[in-house]
Here is the input.
Amino acid sequence: MKTRMTELFGIKHPIMCGGMMWLCKPDLCAAISNAGALGNITAANYNTGEELRTAIKETREKTDRPFSVNLSLLPSFRITKEMYLEWFNACLAEKVAAFEISGTPVDKFFGPDAIKRGHDAGAKFIHKLGSVRHAVHAEHAGYDAVIAAGVEEGGHPLMDDVTTMVLTPRMAETVKIPVITTGGIADGRTLAAALVLGAEGVMMASRFMATTECRMNHKVKDELVNHQEFDTYLYGKTIGFQGRAMKNQVLTQIQDMEAKHATLNELAPFLSGLRQTAIWDEGDIEAGLVPVGQSIGLIHDVVTCKELVERMVKQAEALLSGSRLK
Here is the structure.
């Protein structure tokens, strides 16, 4: 299945992994890349540029295939601009294949020469976006591809609340650079749909949680399989920082506080990503926010990354060729 996405990154299948705090580390990244997709290391898992360089080197010991590094340039209770700069410079020094950017455009965050510096080091730039207007900026700034992030996605969808079904073709008809779709993607049917809508491939995060190589407690993986698409909710709109997570006690408390016009400072203790370590390591899904997308309704099993990617591609190819293969 060759597309402009596979050609751009030198990968076999038009599938990539999105950034995930505490989860996108060398083992999962390498497993996804070895499966023919584009793996991901999330920079925010590390405290210094040197720690990130060590993770990149460890990943290269496990795979000789391309992978990306996620930089989520978003407001943070823990991460400083100096840390972001260290990570960016570490990636340039290690000549990573690609940056997956979300939040503030990299050219605005690091300066107008940032993309040129990355290109000179051999890196491609992808920006995850929730609107066509932002995709236009990315194309003009020199990004190599954009990700059409529908409101179905986990993490932090744009407050425009546009669905994948509409955003993908709108973005594809507006910009000339490759468009990758995320939000509601979890199987071959959704991969095929994204390609029909004009995308060159897809990005997934929630679906890669439910793989054997993901370093996450099996209790959480079971919850992903058992929960449905209606079990995720949006939060944070009242403070201008929207997110989507699985329904639990913490999310309910946040929603109740927002209804009473709580401030960011009042909500901050419940939004911290540090709470997630108890979720991923111990399987306590009530310990904090569980950021997942509506695609959990399409997750029915826990499989290896290789099996997941190959199954998706086989199903998508069959559907696109007119077969009714399930």
The two ends are 18 Å apart (CA to CA). The domain at 4-216+301-320 is CATH 3.20.20.70 (TIM Barrel).
